Amino acid sequence: MQKITEAVRAGRVLVSDGAWGTFLHEKGLKSGECPESWCESRFDDIVDVAARYVRAGADMIGTNSFGGSCFKLEHYGLAAGAAALNEAAARASRLAAGAERWVIASIGPTGKMLITEEVTEQELYEAFKTQARAFESGGADAACIETMSDIGEAVQAIRAVKENTRLEVICTFTFERTVRGDYRTMMGVSPAEAARACIGAGADIIGTNCGNGIERMIEIVREMRAVDGGIPILVQANAGLPLLVDGERVFTDSPDGMARFVPALIEAGANIIGGCCGAAPAHITAIAEAIARR
């Protein structure tokens, strides 16, 4: 297949997928159960989630591996099986995606903090290397390092993928709006700082995911785009900000509500648009249709 970066530079605006957790819980994932374990024990169900986003119109499909590092898996006694679980995650999405869509394998934060010295850079690097090599073996096209807040951890993930595989590297950070009205990660990193760090480490695609609805993502993308005029930018927005209704989190943006901000997001500099928390296949279809109309 053509690389994602090549497709973007040829002028395409691409669509990524949306949230996975909701579907897993609908299928019976219990509180406290390891979602990544389903890549082996409930493989067909993982394929089905990926296939829903294929039918919704996504050009690229994620994987059920957000918590697939050995550090996350050790909470379930599954750290020794990290490579096998991550490879199965990539195989499931590859099976659903077929030959005409990209698989962007998910790498989430480890939950370990460099600043407190509970983990070393080398330990992070090795954990991410295990995931990256497994993704490549499972048929992924790219690694999507996502929901990052710390530059040091993100850089080790980028290096691990770039130095050990041929996968394209996507890296996205999660920002919150401060009382001053600007955006920072929980570690105090601005969108511009994140962009410069990711590019310096060798990321092929940068961006932002989670933490905000699609309207707020416009400002974040503008700040990232000001750092580099050419690098592809991916945005995976939540379906609005959540409200607590009868003890349940409810995301407020309808599919049409998300889709109406797509033109402004593209104008700000986004090249790949999808969803995160609360974004279902219907949201992805609406985004795809908005891109097609444009």
Give a written overview of the molecule.
With 294 residues, this protein is α/β, with parallel strands linked by helices. Helix content is 45%, strand content 18%. The chain has 13 helices and twelve strands. It has helices spanning 4-9, 21-26, 38-41, 43-56, 70-73, 82-97, 121-138, 151-164, 191-201, 214-227, 255-259, 262-268, 281-293; strands at 14-15, 60-61, 102-107, 142-148, 168-173, 176-177, 183-184, 205-213, 233-238, 242-245, 248-251, 272-275. The chain has an eight-stranded parallel beta sheet with strand order 1-12-9-8-5-4-3-2. Strands 6-7 form a two-stranded antiparallel sheet. α8 links the parallel β4 and β5 (168-173). α4 (43-56) packs parallel to α6, α4 (43-56) runs parallel beside α13 and α6 (82-97) packs across α7 (121-138). It is globular. It starts with a helix and ends with a helix. The model has no long low-confidence stretch (mean pLDDT 97).
Number of strands: 12
Strand order of the largest sheet: 1-12-9-8-5-4-3-2
User: What is the helix content?
Assistant: 40-55%
Structural class: alpha/beta
Distance between the termini: 25 Å
Please give the radius of gyration in angstroms.
17 Å
Features:
294 residues, 8-stranded parallel β-sheet, two-stranded antiparallel ribbon, 12 strands, 45% helix
Please specify the SSE layout and strand pairing.
Blueprint (H helix, E strand, L loop, with lengths): L3 H6 L4 E2 L5 H6 L11 H4 L1 H14 L3 E2 L8 H4 L8 H16 L4 E6 L13 H18 L3 E7 L2 H14 L3 E6 L2 E2 L5 E2 L6 H11 L3 E9 H14 L5 E6 L3 E4 L2 E4 L3 H5 L2 H7 L3 E4 L5 H13 L1
Parallel strand pairs: 1-12, 2-3, 3-4, 4-5, 5-8, 8-9, 9-12
Antiparallel strand pairs: 6-7, 10-11
Helix pairs in contact: 4-6, 4-13, 6-7, 7-8, 8-9, 9-10, 10-12
